[in-house]
Amino acid sequence: MLVTGGCGFIGSHVVECLHGAGHDVRVLDALLPEVHGVRPGPLAGGGEVRVGDLRDPATVGSAVSGIDAVCHLAAMVGLGVDARDLPGYVGHNDLGTAVLLAAMARAGVSRLVLASSMVVYGEGGYACREHGEVAAGPREVAALAAGRFDPPCPRCGAALVPGLVSEEARLDPRNVYAATKVAQEHLSGAWARVTGGSVAALRYHNVYGARMPRDTPYAGVASLFRSALARGEAPRVFEDGRMRRDFVEVRDVAAASLAALERFESPGALRAFNIGSGVPRTVREMAQALAAACGGPEPVVTGEYRLGDVRHITASSERARRELGWRARIGFQDGAAAFAVAPLRERAAVS
To answer: Which end of the chain, C or N, has fewer beta carbons within 10 A?
Structure first.
């Protein structure tokens, strides 16, 4: 099978997991310098690594030849730095996905596991004590600047209670990366209906673990904390640090990808699955756990914010447990302790 982005953080763990289960793997990766420091060596299981751009039809057509399934992880990730990142995100994530799907159709490859993300939901699930379940509106600069980080009820303005979001929740992307992930799902769903293919869209929540890229604004928050601690600096926590997330260890995520490839098939349809621990934690808790495990300085809560961030997003992964037989096995404390001493991926020098 083909793993796009198989040299990256999550992709490299997926490749190892697939090899461990006896699958033959081919990798296609662009080795973007924002993520990769040095060219990777041969795959541990003896698979093939091809370096190429997912937007190039000839490259992708060759990569899918003789393949029976695709696990599509290649993407630009993170919120981006500014509006100048827009063409890169749309090109790599959406055009690249379209080229891949067209090549799969030509080659008769009918099974796809798509690496989606919890960012497709925007804000997570909320309930008002008076009005029940409600959708939180867009965050406003004036409220954030004044330190009012929690979204109010859109009907009465009262405080909301955050809860777990299910796959039936509406999609409400709040930043460019999120918009491209929604587009990937829609493109893949359309491909499935036209070709009779089967798509499992795995909506990863906050993945962390060994081989996260270090010292890059495109990395996840856990990597930013770990990079700071490696430099002997205190992790900087935005807002008040109470943002709720679902941190899931990368080896659990790799196991979910294997489960989807081996156990899911629904011709002509896309099925979404939340992939999270099911246990909400705050961003400050992750910073504190890493600092304690590293013996580093205590986190600093800065009050800073990014408009494209969401306040709370945590998952119900019951569907993945029920239909894929998967659940997260690595607890938060054990995962954070392991990540505190795990190697990070060195970033390439970019002039």
So the answer is: C
Q: Splitting the chain (351 residues) into consecutive groups of 10 residues, what average pLDDT does each group show?
A: 95 96 96 66 71 96 97 84 80 96 98 96 95 92 96 95 95 91 98 98 96 78 92 96 97 98 95 96 97 95 92 95 97 96 71 35
Q: Of all residues in the chain, what percent are helix, strand and coil, respectively (each to 5)? A: 35, 20, 45
Contact 147, 240 (CB under 8 A): yes
Q: Beta 125-128 vs 161-165: how paired, if at all? A: antiparallel
DSSP assignment letter at 1: -
Q: Which of 17, 26, 67, 46 is nearest to 259 (CA)?
A: 17
Would you say 198 and 330 are in contact if contact means Cβ atoms under 8 Å apart?
no
For the annotated catalytic residues, the residue numbers are 177
Question: Structure pTM?
Answer: 0.93
| CA distance linking residue 218 with residue 18, whole number of Å | 26
If phi > 0 it is left, if psi is from -120 to 50 it is alpha, else beta; for residue 266 that is: beta
Q: Is the four-CA dihedral 202, 210, 249, 252 of positive or negative sign?
A: positive
Rg (CA), the chain: 20
Which tokens go with 42? 């041969």
Residue closest to 247 by CA, chosen among 195, 184, 313, 299: 313
Any idea what DSSP says for residue 234?
P
Strand partners, 303: none
Contact (CB, 8 A) for 310 and 174: yes
Beta carbons within 8 Å of 23's beta carbon, 6+ residues apart: 1, 261
Q: Whole-angstrom Cα distance, residue 274 to residue 97?
A: 20
The two structure tokens encoding residue 149? 């980080």
